[in-house]
Amino acid sequence: MNPLSGVATLNTAATSRVAQLSDTHLMREPGGTLVGLDTDRSLAAVCRLLANQGPIDALLLTGDLAGDEAEEAYERLSELLKPLAVPSFWLPGNHDAVWSDNHPLRSHFKRSIHLPHWDVLMLNTQHPGAVAGHLPTAEMQALEAAVQHAEASGRPLLVATHHPLMPVGCEWLDQIGVDNAEEALQCLAPLGEQALVISGHVHQDSAQAHQGVQCLTSPSTCIQFAPRSAGFQVDAKAPGCRMLTLHEAGRWQTDVLRVTDEAFPVDLDSSGYA
Question: Which end of the chain is more exposed for a tag (fewer CB within 10 A), N or C?
Answer without folding.
Answer: C
